[in-house]
Design a protein that fits this description.
By secondary structure, the protein is mostly beta strands. It contains 3 helices and 21 strands. It has one domain: Distorted Sandwich (Beta-galactosidase, Chain A, domain 5). The longest helix is centred in the N-terminal third of the chain and has 16 residues.
Amino acid sequence: MNVRPVSGVAAFAAFGLGIFLLAGCAHHGTGSDTGGVRISQDDGKLRVEINGRLFTEYCYQNTPRPYYYPLIGPDGLPMTRRWPMEETTDEQHDHLHHRSLWFAHSSVNGYDFWTAGKKCNIVHEKFLNIHSGREAGVIESTDKWVASNGTVVCTDRRALRIYNRPDNQRLFDFEITILAPPDHDVVFGDDKDGVMAVRVAESMRLKHQDGPGDGHIVLSTGERDEDTWGKRADWCDYYGPVHGKVVGIAIFDNPENLRHPTWWHVRDYGLFAANPFGIHDFEKKPRGTGNYTLPAGQSLTLRYRFYLHEGDEQQARVAEEFHQYARMSAR
């Protein structure tokens, strides 16, 4: 479990090094105009291209929390719901706070940073590193978690490392270090709504309002579809058709993460989240069982890998990809 005292610049140097070691590649190119991973500044967001094709945009201004949208997968297919970032008529307009891909939690010192309208915001502070490269690109930044009363509950340092992979797949790592301030503890409450989350494309859903969908959910344990919610597993894969082609998103829980293997808050309507805190919801245990206290002046690091692929979990060899990731994490 990655909990340690906060030590300023040295802590983040170790944080960045951890991301680099998990990458499994040592090339630090500058990239070209089209080759490799290119990251460019836009109005209130960073645009990420892989070999000249849009992959995602990191949206960090004028939003309750940073998020990544769109998320473009194999063969240029959009992998997440478009609403509420775009006005749509062919999608269900529920859960305004489900914005493509994001990190948040519904109970941090009692404040709800997950649900829309709670006036608790994760505020982008600054970028520490924006690096384009032929093999990989990196975005490193800091954020403040500001409660509805203006109190800074905690801060974070996060990094996204995007790899240059063939067009039939996408691979990226998300790492976040939560830092408790020196004057108070930070308690992550026992609640199902959190933390590392995606809202998959509408056509990938397991169910629709008017009946079954064409999507499927599978865990590393072999449990599938309706049997996956609230279960623990090394990884979870959500796959289904987009524009007539079956594609999927797999999330890998790093073996060194808090309470690995994590619980999966994965819903038939398209929500897909890894959550190490919501034990009383997931396992019907006493409320507060999943509470986690981060002592004042210390930090907690969580790491996740995302694998966007063609086909189902067998065709994409999701289990093999996870085992490769786990071996690198153990080095």
